[in-house]
Amino acid sequence: MEIPSKLLEEVVEHFASLPGIGRKTALRLALNLLQKDEGSLERFGESLKSLKSRINYCTVCHNISETEMCSICSNSKRDKSTICVVEDLRDVIAIESTQQYFGTYHVLGGCISPIDGIGPDQLTISQLEKRVASGGIKEIILALTSTMEGDTTSFYLYKKLDSDELQITSLARGVPIGNELEFTDEITLGRSLLQRVPYKNNFSNNT
To answer: 51 in the Ramachandran plot: left (φ > 0), alpha (ψ -120 to 50) or beta?
Structure first.
């Protein structure tokens, strides 16, 4: 697909570098931008520039935030004794959309994946350990994807955090194996949260 403009080609290449965007879709997006008025394009460009410079990470849960502490951690109505451990922002959005969870979160920033060179040190696991050690935490919900990487990470966290004072649970098996939370419908995900089970039950189910 030859594009008769180097500038347009550059924009297409940028769009095509995004996950799930092929060159045809990238071209369609670029052509759509050409139809926008100059003011709209300037605001779009400023938003992209601000995305990197103004977006921070919550100092408590490591969720994306424009302030030092995200709106969830700073909300006095949230249950601070419960932490739902997720992979990234998309999972926070998916769980929040169910309107069935009122605790806080901890965003790991990924899952343990030796083949990709991602070990525990590349994630925010040590920060989670510090939150638990500081006291006041009664339950950790392991809400990671049911993949090899997700299961490996959940097991690692369980071994790290397991104690008589802390309840460690996982989502009920309403979430299909291998599915990412963001693609699970709200009703199923909400039910899986409400019907969460002790994580150690996973071991007895495999024996």
So the answer is: alpha
Query: What one-letter code names the amino acid at 59?
Result: T
* H or E element in which residue 113 lies: none
Taking 50 as the threshold, does the pLDDT of residue 184 lie above it?
yes
Structure token pair of residue 72: 């969830």
The C-alpha atoms of residue 118 and residue 110 are separated, in whole angstroms, by 8
Scored b (16 or more CB within 10 A) or e, 173-203 reads ebbeeeebbbebeeebbbbbbeebeebeebe
Distance CA 164, CA 77 (A): 27
Domains observed in the chain? 6-54 (1.10.8.420), 70-205 (3.40.1360.10)
Name, in order, each residue with C-beta under 8 angstroms of 179's C-beta and a sequence gap of 6 or more: 145, 146
Q: What are phi and psi of 177, to 5 degrees?
A: -60, 130
Phi, psi values for residue 104, rounded to 5°: -110, 180
Question: For all residues of the chain together, what is the average pLDDT?
Answer: 87
What is the pTM assigned to this prediction?
Answer: 0.79
If you count them, how many residues does the chain have?
207
For residue 179, what are the CA distances in angstroms to 50, 169, 176, 200?
Answer: 32, 19, 6, 21
Which residues touch 50 (CB under 8 Å, ≥6 apart)?
A: none
